[in-house]
């Protein structure tokens, strides 16, 4: 039962952290009487929950059983695995070298891809995104470790 609670905590912790960050931005950007803040927040919660649950089910559970089979369950190995499982899928799917020659991209007015080649700003944006999702995976793993111990 403790293991199930740990996996549920691994799904909910990054979800609730991201939703808290999102709702803070909603109240900072819009009037607090805006009734659509809660509609947007609910939709964002569902998206975060589904992605987090998919990561835990498809990647986290098999990794846990692999680490347990190899007798490598330690707090640091679980945290490392959580970071890697959060970062690697995003890093693979957002790899900037998939752009076709002649393509250009802008982010906040800064060119991130010029003629199909990522600029330094593009690489920084890419690694920042990968690091962000790695920290989300690390957060999930920390929740898992704290509940499973």
Strand order of the largest sheet: 1-2-3
**Helix-residue proportion:** over 70%
Radius of gyration: 18 Å
Order of SSEs, N→C?
HHHEEEH
Largest sheet geometry: 3 strands, antiparallel
Give the oligomeric state of the chains in this entry, treating copies of one chain as homo and distinct chains as hetero.
single chain
Low-confidence segments, given as residue ranges, are none
Labels describing this entry:
149 residues; mainly alpha; 3-stranded antiparallel beta sheet; 3 strands
Describe how the helices and strands are arranged.
Layout: H1 2-29, H2 36-69, H3 75-93, E1 105-107, E2 110-114, E3 117-118, H4 120-148
Helix pairs in contact: 1-2, 1-4, 2-3, 3-4
Describe this structure in words.
With 149 residues, the chain is mostly helical. It is built from four helices and three strands. The protein has a three-stranded antiparallel β-sheet with strand order 1-2-3. Strand 2 (110-114) and strand 3 (117-118) form a beta hairpin. Helix 2 packs across helix 3 and helix 3 (75-93) runs antiparallel to helix 4 (120-148). The radius of gyration is 18 Å and the shape is flat.
Give a quick precis of the structure:
This protein has 149 residues and is mostly helical. The protein has helices spanning 2-29, 36-69, 75-93, 120-148, and strands at 105-107, 110-114, 117-118. A three-stranded antiparallel β-sheet has the order 1-2-3.
